[in-house]
Amino acid sequence: MSAFQEIIGSVSRQKEEVLSQESRDELKDAVLQLVSYHYDNTVAVSEVTDLLASSSHEIKGVLKSCISVDNNPETGSLHMLEDCVSAVLKLAKDMQSQNHNTDIKEKIIKQVLVIQEVVDRQAFNRPRLLNLLCNEMTLPVYLIWVLNKEAIMALNTYISFKNSSLDFAKAFANELFNSISLYNEESWFLEILTQLVQSSLTVQKNTDSLNVKKISKHILELLNQKILDELSLNGGIVKVLDLTKFCPMEMLKQYYQGLISLWLAHRPVLKVAEALKQQKDWIFSKLSPSLTQWYKQCLVTLEPLEVLEQIKFVMDSQEVNWQTVLSFLSTAVVCVPQFSDLVQDYIVSLLNEGLVSCNLENLVIAFLFARQGCYEGPHVFSSYPDWFQSVFSEASSTPAANRKTFACLMKFLTDMVPFESSSHLKAHIVRPPFVPLKCRELLTDYILLAKTRLADLKQPLDGALEEDQDIESRKKMNEQIEDDIQKAVVLYQSSKKIPSSIMEASIFRKPYYVGKFLPVLLKPRALPDIPDLRMKFIDALKQVDKIPSTLYTNYLKACKAESARLLEGVFLEEDMDLELSEEEQLQFCLDELLKVILDSPNNKVVEQCSLLREKLKMVLHIEENRVEMYTSEPATVLNVNAANISPLQIKVVDQLLEFLACACQRDIEMSTAVSWPQDLFSVLQEVAELHNAIFIRIWKLIMEQGRDLDHHHIRTLGFCLAHTEHMTSRETTVQVCQGFCPVLQGNFTHLVWQELPISTSSWKKFSFRLMLEYIDFVSNIRKADVFPFLLPNVFCDKFQFLHGFFKDLHPDDQVLCSFGQLSKEIKSAVSRNQLAFRDWVQFEMETTFPDDILSFADWQVHVHSTVFNSYLLEESLANGSIKDNRKIIGELFTQLLQQEMSPKLYPSSECKDCSSKEVHAHTEETHLYFISVLQTLISYLMPGKRVASWLAEQIQDEMVRRESNLEKEFCIQAIFRIISWFPAFRLFADSPSAPSALDLPCQIINQNFTCLCRCGYFPARETIYMLQGLSQLENAGDVDSVLLRCPLLSLSLVVHTQFTRNLIAEIYKKHTNPGLEDMLKITDWVERSRTTPAPLPGELDVNVSMRSAALLSLLHTRSLTSLMEIIRKQARSSEDRQDRVFEGFAVLLVAELIEVKSQFYEEAEQALENLLLSKPELLSYLASNMGEWESVLPQNVLHQMPYTLIKFLSRRKNTSWQSSLTYLSSVLLLHKKVVHCMDQQVPSENLIQMNDWIDVIGFVKGCFNSATKAQLKNVTKELLSDCGADIVLMYKQAIAREQ
User: Fold this and answer.
1) What is the rounded distance in angstroms from the CA atom of residue 193 to the CA atom of residue 188?
2) CA–CA separation, 68 vs 78, rounded Å?
3) Which residues form the signal peptide (predicted)?
4) Cα dist from 149 to 68, 113, 195, 751, whole Å
5) Nearest-5° Cα angle at 829, 825 to 834
């Protein structure tokens, strides 16, 4: 026990016993004297302070009474005061050095309690106390708070007392700033700041209060400037101060309005030109999180309109720091939902005022603000081309609607050209503003200047393809430079010297070294604590002045900022910092977005989407200086099985889909107020590198794996499809196979519904669930006015089909329950049109077997019941009779035809993707069954007062829909595959006995069926079918009429004698007439001549073409020997009739040679060669008179015959007919016809390739080289004038050679 405690103990006992008041006073004086002689005051004060915490109430009273003496100088009270203040200051300094030391805080409070007791008893001199406390430049903030709280020295008193100190405000601001990192969340610190805020804003009248207000305001300004400098210049972290619990809201609003004004005008050093170049680096996602937190603190407190008004005030009244203004604007646009619209209105008002008064400052602000918003992405602001077009392109709304304002706009844009990026210049050119009258020249001059600037920047105007190629080339160059850097670092490590190649490059290749090598070497990164080899190499270059100081300083700043940004991707685990990879940072960002979606308001979602946007660009290595602002939207081309998609893109897409699956699995409640899906997919809209990967991944998941997916995966796909229009509005081209099958074109989601698999019950169940999920999302997040687009007819038709399928065949399936829970509006939208018969047939035709639930027999019963008991019954009730069902029959025929032409039924043999699909192996069953249904329906047809048969009308309708010859040929082939199942007479009449209207059937044969002719006749199968149809007609006149009006059919009957002879004989027995008799005689002659050559039946009065066809028929029956004997004996005959026959035969032989793959090709070549050897004059006939056969042969055959003949001639060398007088003229005439045919051909149907044409020219040139003088003279001027300049030149050279 100390002596002091013993004294106190004795005093207490005496007080309890007999001490009078006088004795107590004497004892008190004695104690004080003893203390003053034997104890140090500092020790005494310290002991008193310690005992205050542990002593009883009575002892505390004695202690206080002991130190509460009167103002007698002899007591040493002033000496005691100094010691008390010194002790408090020492404790406060110790607190600063030891950070959060609770014991020291308690000692400070106890020490102040001692001082407070003395002050209360007025034992100390108060002015002296203030002098002692204020001798320091500034007191620690905690001590000020304690003194203020215990009413020893109020904060305002302290500020007023320090008014005369010159550097007090700066020192106190520094003290506050240094305390933020330690005490930013402690209430005492926030109370001090709140008092400062109140002092700086409260209205004062007396002079002292005004001075306190002025100094308080100055302190806060210095503090906030230091905070901004730390955040923006140094890239530091300053914790946010939340005063909402301590300061009244109205006063807090005033404070933050002043803070905005202060920050926006702090350090206004950047010029507009620098702001234009750098503003893309000040977007929200690139700002430090600490800076954005400070910005958001202002934005949360103030209303959006108040924030905008404060910005307006600063922009109108002060010079501003563009970096702070634009970064604050970005944060406001991203974090405040309503702010984007307010800013756009403000921008328009600035443009209106600026253009009317030619105020360039207003225009600069407007364009900088607009571009800053555009840089934030389409989820918060429109793209720059869209914004520029929306503001300036409409005559009714543009602020540059007259000559004066338009001239001002053009002058401003012209002055901006040297500082513009290529993207902005392209936007101005591709989406030009509205041009008032007599102002076109101004726009033309600007566009010319902008294009010149683009040329200087080496940026093409036309689209993103060249830009992407340029980016790709730069990327490859940077990769090569990085390889060079790695090699140089390795050499530096081994030799400790800078490689000579680098030194030489810095001297002799300085543009490359400074412009390309150093930017790659000094790419910002988070620098390690221990310098690595790259850092040492950079330092070595800096020491020998091979890196400019400014560039090196900027590099260090950028690295520091990069380190600050990477703090978002660092976790603290077991006291170790683990830095995340780029993919892990993306996943972390997605996880944070999921948390925000579930727990936070929408503005937090927008912030996280902006951060996700930046992470996606980082992971995909999209260049920082590349801004995706499309001036045009090219169509999206998806090659499903051969897409050029990198593994990185696939991984990123899977991360995104997994994120969406988690969001959907947690049953996030959607409503019209939720905007995060739109924000997310708008962000994805900018990342064009992912579009193909996303669409193809969704496509393959649905089309290939759909029936095996879990419910939450199906829900995710439905969610994605409901929002893809936010990502792209472009037309999509889907190439499902490797280029052999037709492509799909249209809106992506519409194509998904069109191709959605419904082949089996499991696929039907998946598709129905997917559509229900899609409907669920659409109905919850969309308004009814967009249902027609989001629920197109193809969707509604397929949905109704699936709903009917489950309702009829699986009424107990749980999937149906979901449909019953939908709203009336969505049900009405889905069922707005009744499922048409043709659509029902199309969907049923996709069914394949074996099915996992439904047997083929059950399916047949279902189809039969639906056709006859539902659709046919409705049609019969509408028409009054079941016999008049042509509409249903026509629709069924059309669907069968479409399936016949589809690769699903007949996959291309060249397409491995199509051939490998299981659906092709099982589709034919349903196809054949529907043909049987069609046969049954056709049997109900009865002859009526129709112009033509139903089948002829149907074929005519189908052919009208086809345009190209190739498509028509494909269609006719498919038609014949279908109608071959029907009675053949239906081509000509609905009933064999009914009167026939043959105009349309004959027209179809002569115009449409001719596209089947590869050579000069119909194929055998089609010929036999038409002949069978004629044989079934009961009216003899109909047969004669068809044969007379269809000469190509008659010719084909003779050509295919071996197949048609017996049927012709049967028809002749049924309908005796001279025409059939002559045809029968010709076929008999062909049959006899197969073994023994017989003279041509010249006595028959039949068409020459029929007898020529008979000779060709011999060729087809492989009777080549007999044919050659006939040519040898009869071709030299001088009879005109025989000449005509062989002329026709020559024409048919040339037509036969058109089809190179014909099985009779070699025999036809030999026959034609022998025929020309026997009758050389036939070549002249073929060259000049093939047009006589236009009434018989198809046009497509006639067009190809000149080239076929000239190709035949070019392969024959040293033949006798080449010496004939007319040979050269014939060749030139054929050449002329070939040129004419090439000029008339449609480009997509060009039959002559360039290599073949070169061969033709070479052959003609050879003919001139070998031509005799007589042959040259036989060439007329008229013929030469039509052959072209090159032929005329050959002719002149040949004539000159002969002379």
Assistant:
1) 9
2) 12
3) none
4) 21, 11, 12, 73
5) 130
What distance in Å separates the CA atoms of residue 690 and residue 681, rounded to the nearest whole number? 11
What is the tens place of the pLDDT at every residue in 578-618?
A: 456 778 888 888 888 888 887 765 567 888 888 888 888 88
d(CA 908, CA 220): 79
Torsions phi, psi of 126, nearest 5? Answer: -60, -50
What letters, b where the CB count within 10 A reaches 16 and e where it falls short, cover 385-400?
Answer: bbbbbebbeeeeebbb
Burial degree of 662 (CB within 10 A; 0-12, 13-18, 19+)? middle
Q: How far is CA 1116 from the centre of its chain?
A: 59
Q: Provide the edge-to-edge strand list for the sheet that holds 732-735.
A: 636-639, 732-735, 744-746
Query: Cβ atoms within 10 A of the Cβ of 640, count?
Result: 19
574: left (phi over 0), alpha (psi -120 to 50) or beta: left
CB 296 within 8 A of CB 438: no
Rounded-to-integer distance, Cα 171 and Cα 1060, Å: 116
Question: With helix as H, strand as E and coil as C, how does 1077-1089 read?
Answer: HHHHHHHHHHHHH
Q: 733 has which bridge partners?
A: 637, 745
Tokens 């001590």 — which residue?
A: 143
At 744, which helix (H) or strand (E)? strand 744-746
* 3-class secondary-structure state, position 639: strand
pLDDT in tens, 689-739: 888 888 888 988 999 888 888 888 888 898 888 888 766 666 777 777 655
- Measured distance CA(1071)–CA(1075) in Å, rounded: 10
In degrees, rounded to 5, the angle at the alpha carbon of residue 876 between the alpha carbons of residues 872 and 880 is 175
* Between 428 and 123, residue with greater pLDDT: 428
- 3-state DSSP call for residue 202? coil
Residue 217 to residue 228: CA distance in whole angstroms: 16
**Is the bond preceding residue 499 a cis peptide, omega within 30 degrees?**
no
